[in-house]
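wait is this the right file?? whatever heres the structure
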């Protein structure tokens, strides 16, 4: 039997105008951890998509997997052959339990209709124990810290009899201890004969965990090497085609100049407390701290994206109130967020559209000047070396590093006076990282004042002039000059402070039908309308479908995250058809009950009740974006709206004002829903902090 579980050769992939892969090859031994590395845009993601069956290679490709020769794979074939991918975003469903996240795809594969919760949780506990993860399988994924979510994703992959486990940037959002826990699981899987393809830009982790390395550069194969054959310098040279020195820029003292930004006593309960600092012209001020220290929340508050409980801001000596990002932009303050995919980009729009979104022609509702827009886009693409240089390409098609460059480019277009950049090089290769560092340094020399939030200690030491250390929501120390070294940073980060007919009425129903509508059960209990029985049946039907069937749980999954649901193997079109079918049954039942009561029917009877329906389900706790809600809570919301409408009618409140009050109720409910989401996120951050401690 061959020592190689996977051998690929002649792998090429061509997109319109782009050669993503050009005759690359790759081999993977049984029971090894193999690093696949290269700059952003080198072709790693395209290669992984080919291995997982998401993309088909050009003609001529040869893939030997588990002794079988293939030209290409489909997603189903890849899973059948034991290829599993854990994407950087994990593709987990936060509104479902850990057990469901592990077994939902398995149940769909077996075409199971009913969910046996007791068996599911028992089997999930066993799977979690195999990777030494001691958690309750009934806990919601969103309540777990990122490190444990990563292990749940691994447990789900192992359920598929995985032989090849592909991990895409698995440590990008993990703390030191979580990385250590992940490595222990990886080594255990390796000893069990499972082969792992490990993709990361963190060279120290690669040298610690991996046995062999394969390097791609500009879509080409640069070689495969054992760990002993490489040094970090040689690896970088193979990746980028040039030597890159990790240059520590000299520290500059700007304290004698007038500050461009002064923050005093900034406080937001449960996030940060009594934060004060100055930012000087042309200075790079760093913020460092452990996960949950409050750095990101602080920067969002300075940018006006989050409200504070107290504190003040001065810009160029004048007191200002930054109540929104729009106000911040008017003051020439820009912010590159940490979560660039969800907060920094319009993924389905083109690179061109993303880069011009902050231009005056868009933000100030002026007539657009297409010539100037194209000029602006061309300048940003060239300045930031964004590849491929195809402005009409959707941003979702770009590599991680080039996505980050687009986020930075759209804010550079406004010529900011102050830039806030949260994790500027997270998930970016060493070459792109150096380019961004040089760009930031050049901007500072041109007078732009920059705040950098980073978890990369080498990055912080290399580029900042001063460094604020945060712990438990407070600044424990501001380091300057020679004080900015690893020992001092760790000391203060860890131990410092912290719509039947033509719209006409339908009448003439049989007398028996009308009598049915007037029938009452249990007359000894003052009579219960028979329609109540139908309501109870409808509620039990809805509850059973949503709670105890795989299509019902799939509805929750699609509402939470459509892309992740697809990766679970959910046939979205079929599930939506099932949902509409059930909805049609319930609407038919409602029409039957209503007609039996009034003895006539109007096809337009409930037009205009859309607001009431929305209000009822949102008040009942259903997420405005989908994915959440319970039948019993929706019943409560429906009763609340019915009582409110009856009360307003009996009080002779005009219909106009009834609609106004209903709209206010919806806005209030949506606000509560969003606050609940924020609280869930805060709880997750708190868990991360406790995990770190």
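ok assuming it is, sequence goes like this
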């Amino acid at each position: 039997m061959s020592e190689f579980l996977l051998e690929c050769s002649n792998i090429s992939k061509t997109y319109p105008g782009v050669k993503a892969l050009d005759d690359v090859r790759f081999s993977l031994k049984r029971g090894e951890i193999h690093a696949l590395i290269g700059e952003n845009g080198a072709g790693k993601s395209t290669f992984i998509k080919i291995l997982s069956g998401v993309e088909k290679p050009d003609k001529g490709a040869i893939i030997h997997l588990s002794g079988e020769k293939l030209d290409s794979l489909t997603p189903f074939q890849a899973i059948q052959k034991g290829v599993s991918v854990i994407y950087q975003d994990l593709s987990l469903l936060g509104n479902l339990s850990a057990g469901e996240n592990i077994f939902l795809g398995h149940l769909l594969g077996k075409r199971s209709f009913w969910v046996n919760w007791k068996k599911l949780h028992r089997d999930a506990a066993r799977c979690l124990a195999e990777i030494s993860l001691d958690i309750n399988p009934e806990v919601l994924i969103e309540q777990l810290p990122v490190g444990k979510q990563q292990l749940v994703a691994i447990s789900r992959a192992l359920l598929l009899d995985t032989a090849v486990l592909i991990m895409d940037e698995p440590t990008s959002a993990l703390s030191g201890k979580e990385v250590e826990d992940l490595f222990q699981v990886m080594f255990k899987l390796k000893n069990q004969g499972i082969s792992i393809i490990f993709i990361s830009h963190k060279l120290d982790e690669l040298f610690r965990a991996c046995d062999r390395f394969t390097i791609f550069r500009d879509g080409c194969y640069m070689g495969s090497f054992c760990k002993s054959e490489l040094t970090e310098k040689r690896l970088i040279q193979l990746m980028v085609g040039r030597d890159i020195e990790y240059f520590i820029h000299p520290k500059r003292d700007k304290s004698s100049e007038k500050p461009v930004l002064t923050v005093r006593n900034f406080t937001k309960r449960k996030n940060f407390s009594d934060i004060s600092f100055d930012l000087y012209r042309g200075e790079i001020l760093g913020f460092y701290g452990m996960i949950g220290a409050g750095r990101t929340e602080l920067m969002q508050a300075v940018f006006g994206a989050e409200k504070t409980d107290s504190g003040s801001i001065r810009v160029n000596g004048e007191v200002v109130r930054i109540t929104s990002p729009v106000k911040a932009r008017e003051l020439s303050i820009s912010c590159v967020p940490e979560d660039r995919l969800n907060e920094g980009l319009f993924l389905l729009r083109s690179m061109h559209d993303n880069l011009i979104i902050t231009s005056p022609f868009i933000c100030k509702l002026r007539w657009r000047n297409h010539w100037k827009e194209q000029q602006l886009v061309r300048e940003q693409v060239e300045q930031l070396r964004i590849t491929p240089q195809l402005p009409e390409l959707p941003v979702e098609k770009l590599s991680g590093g080039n996505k980050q460059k687009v986020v930075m480019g759209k804010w550079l277009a406004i010529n900011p006076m102050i830039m806030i950049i949260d994790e500027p090089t997270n998930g970016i290769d060493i070459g792109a990282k150096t380019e961004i560092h040089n760009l930031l340094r050049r901007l500072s020399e041109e007078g732009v004042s920059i705040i950098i939030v980073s978890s990369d200690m080498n990055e912080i030491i290399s580029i900042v002039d001063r460094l604020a250390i945060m712990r438990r929501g407070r600044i424990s120390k501001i380091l300057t000059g020679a004080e900015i070294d690893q020992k001092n940073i760790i000391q203060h980060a860890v131990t410092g402070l912290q719509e039947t007919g033509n719209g006409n009425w339908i009448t003439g129903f049989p007398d028996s039908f009308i009598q049915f509508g007037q029938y009452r059960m249990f007359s000894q209990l003052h009579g219960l309308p028979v329609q109540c029985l139908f309501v109870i049946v409808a509620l039990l039907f809805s509850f059973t479908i949503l709670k105890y069937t795989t299509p019902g749980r799939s509805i929750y999954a699609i509402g939470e995250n459509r892309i992740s649901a697809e990766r679970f193997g959910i046939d979205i079109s079929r599930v939506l058809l099932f949902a509409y079918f059930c909805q049609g049954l319930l609407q038919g039942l409602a029409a039957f009950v209503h007609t039996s009561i009034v003895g006539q029917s109007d096809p337009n009877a409930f037009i205009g009740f859309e607001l009431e329906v929305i209000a009822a389900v949102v008040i009942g706790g259903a997420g405005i974006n989908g994915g959440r809600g319970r039948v019993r809570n929706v019943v409560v919301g429906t009763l609340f709206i019915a009582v409110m409408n009856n009360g307003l009618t009996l009080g002779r409140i005009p219909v106009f004002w009834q609609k106004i009050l209903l709209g206010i109720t919806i806005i209030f409910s949506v606000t509560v829903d969003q606050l609940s989401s924020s609280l869930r996120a805060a709880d997750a951050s708190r868990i991360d902090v406790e995990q770190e401690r």
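The chain is about 45% helix and 20% strand. so i think its the right one actually
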